[in-house]
Amino acid sequence: VQLVESGGGLVQPGESLRLSCATSGFIFRSYDMRWYRQTPGKEREWVAHIGISDRITNYADSVKGRFTISRDNAKNTVYLQMNSLKPEDTAVYYCHIPILPRYWGQGTQVIVSS
């Protein structure tokens, strides 16, 4: 199983980013997916969840209305569209397979700063 996150970067408050997580080694379309984030000295925080059907999504209160999780089963990829970014969104972002908890990617760094 491989999870490869990308799309992070340095942006100003209010701007947008789209994160991608390319996956391999498992039947992507059969698994729920999640995004987490982590800042130094803090535990990893759940951000968003998408079911096998992309009609089922859930978000942490801190990102609800600003972030959108989606998936492309043909590309084995899950996305996180992040709008109206705030400095407190600064973190390393990871995708994750809830039912296969031991697998993590390297993460992608997001920095929101003026």
Spell out the key features of this protein.
114 residues; mainly beta; six-stranded mixed β-sheet; four-stranded antiparallel β-sheet; 10 strands
Commentary on this structure:
The structure is a single chain. The chain is mainly β. Helices cover 0% and strands 47% of the residues. It is built from no helices and 10 strands. It has strands at 2-6, 9-11, 17-24, 33-38, 45-50, 57-59, 67-72, 77-82, 91-96, 108-112. Strands 2-10-9-4-5-6 form a 6-stranded mixed β-sheet, with no helix packed on it. A 4-stranded antiparallel β-sheet has the order 1-3-8-7, with no helix packed on it. The model has no long low-confidence stretch (mean pLDDT 97).
Break the fold down into its secondary structure elements and pairings.
Layout: E1 2-6, E2 9-11, E3 17-24, E4 33-38, E5 45-50, E6 57-59, E7 67-72, E8 77-82, E9 91-96, E10 108-112
Parallel strand pairs: 2-10
Antiparallel strand pairs: 1-3, 3-8, 4-5, 4-9, 5-6, 7-8, 9-10
